[in-house]
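User: quick one, fold this
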Amino acid sequence: MDVLDDDTHSMPSRISLIERIKIEHYLKNGESFREISRQLGRSVSSISEEVRGIKGRDSYTAVLANKRSKKNSKSRNQKKYKIDKDEVLKEIIFSKLRKQWSPKQMSMYLRKNKALHMTVSPETIYAYLFVLPRGTLKKELLSCLRQNRKHRRKQKRNCQNPKKLEEMLSIHERPKEVEDRIIPGHWEGDLIVGKRNQSAIGTLVERTTRTLLLVPLKSRDTQHVAKAFARVMKRLPKEMKLTMTYDQGREMAKHKLITEMTGIKIYFADPRSPWQRGTNENTNGLIRQYFPKGTDFTTVTRYKLKKVQDLLNTRPRKTLDWLTPQEAFDTLINNGHCSVK
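Assistant:
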């Protein structure tokens, strides 16, 4: 047995200085990466990466390799714990989070307030929150995020081309005035699906005023969905019933029925293009604060839906110059004499 070998009952995840001394010794003796990995009980790829990080076999020394490892470790720790090392920064982030600010809003706030001399990216804030140790604090802070998740998830998209709805009008045929948001009465619609895809509610958002209407649904049957949307939109003043933009979800298979009942023309966005209905997508994110994923909408009363609708319609919006959607809607309709029912 080689004089440098010893028994190792538990192998640390990172290569140690003792192992690096052994690697240097084996390399000088002309041993291959495979033989060195066998001697140390490490994978061949670990040995290969370790040696190539110091520009190959001829340049490798244990001292240089250890210095490089410490430098990389310090860099990783600084990046990972940047928020931990600044108590003022941490306090600002925690306080804004408890007010349900998004990491993007916090990042922009810090960037614009140059007197604070602090910058941090949204990704750094997200990463910090998700690596917090388990406990009451982590649970509280994650619950403040608009999309309340215990773990970060990669986006997965179904790339299959869905079957097109019959007689549908493309968003590219929609009048230009809709895009400009100058004339009110143009809506965006969607479903928010509940627990195990067994229940849902409809959402409608007016593009100019950001007014929200929530649509109670007893089922996702296409006939029922069409009648439910039409029932809600029929209550609107005539001048506010112009168009609706929707995705190509199969629940809209009876879209012609909505048009017949309300006179509203329905246009359909391109597949997998949520930005074409950005107002609705953003509003759905706000609604999820009240109805998180996994909600069983069969247990949600009409009173509760109306309460959430009113809360969001009476919240000031920067995009409306700090008017509420209700105020903006009322201003446009008969000088404030008409409101959403």
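User: anything notable?
Assistant: Residues 1-10, 149-161, 336-341 have pLDDT under 50 and may be disordered.
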